[in-house]
Amino acid sequence: MTMTLQAGTDCCFLSSSAWRATWRLGAAYLTCFLAINTVLWGLAGVDPVESFFGKLILLCFCAIVTTGMSALLYQLRRQSFGRRALVCLAMAATATPLFTLVDHLIHMAFVYPQPVPVDPVYIGYSMIEGLALFFGWSCLSVAQIYSDEARDRERQLAAVREEALAAQMQALRYQVSPHFLFNTLNSVAGLIEEGASDRANRMVLSLSDFLRATLTLDPVQDVRLADELALQEDYLLIERERFSDRMDLKIEVPAALGDALIPSLLLQPLVENAIKHGVGTTNGPVTILITAARVDDRLIVTIDNDMPVTDRTVTDRSGAGIGLRNVSERIRTRFGTQGRFSYGPVRAGCWRAQVELPWVLL
Q1: Which end of the chain is more exposed for a tag (fewer CB within 10 A), N or C?
Q2: At what angle do helices 225-243 and 120-193 cross, to 10 degrees?
Q3: Is the bond preceding 178 in cis, omega lying within 30 degrees of 0?
Q4: What one-character-per-residue DSSP string does 126-149 give?
Q5: What is the DSSP string of 321-353?
Q6: How far is CA 123 from CA 34, 126, 206, 333, in A?
Q7: Is this prediction's pTM over 0.85?
Q8: For the segment 256-298, what is each residue's pLDDT rounded down to a tens digit?
């Protein structure tokens, strides 16, 4: 049963859906009570057929009373449990004499004009019956309100967590741009220093096109692996202006994997890292190999690049920390324990970065 507030205020009125849920619960409760009551009074010698219509009228009265009790308990939902328990007892004690009186009047109406003597035993049974009915309903209403509030808090907490996750993912995603720009502008500056102004100009124009494409991406939405690889090819067009004679890119990804989803620009820092610490630190030709495979329900994307064999910092790439930490944090935030990221030398002269994600299709 969902409880809602009207006009943003903490009012006591239930929404239409809450009323429907209350009536459904009340109908089930009173139907069960009617069945039990009929059986017990039948065992006591009361004809269940003759008394059924009268009991039905009595339960209509009970439905009105229990609805009012539910509304009052909802109004007092901010009170402590002890106070609400006392209210339940007070409401049950107040409604019980009315129940007994209505029961007696219905009995009088059905046997009229015969007089109905006052039977203390019958009145006592009726009082016990009414007290059990109303107190039981009060307890059930309190439990229902607690359940509704718990579900509401869970939904609110889930929404807050989702918003926090989205904000964190946006921050991590946007962190790629300044880091990428810093490295690319350094490359442009290097071309200018070398006197290659035409190549620097083409690199700036390619950078403009690449940024225009990436800024249209939603930071918290996944993209197709094929689209992500296409973006990396566009990025490598920028870097080819500087390393065209030494950089060789190979992408070996089966077409069947193209619709797999990954976070946007997740591979960007890894490709950037391969260029900066592979091509940028090697005098000879360097191959950057991007591969992907599906293993069971996992998507594994691997980026290998050549690197100097004699580099004494082979296991410690100075300056690579920002991009790698960004990728690691994005995977941890987005996928938790279902995502993995590893990097490091796999053999002499080869550095590997590998991303392992859950297999999800567009």
Answers
A1: C
A2: 20
A3: no
A4: HHHHHHHHHHHHHHHHHHHHHHHH
A5: HHHHHHHHHHHHHHHGGG-EEEEEEEETTEEEE
A6: 18, 5, 93, 66
A7: no
A8: 999 999 988 888 888 888 887 787 677 778 889 999 999 999 9
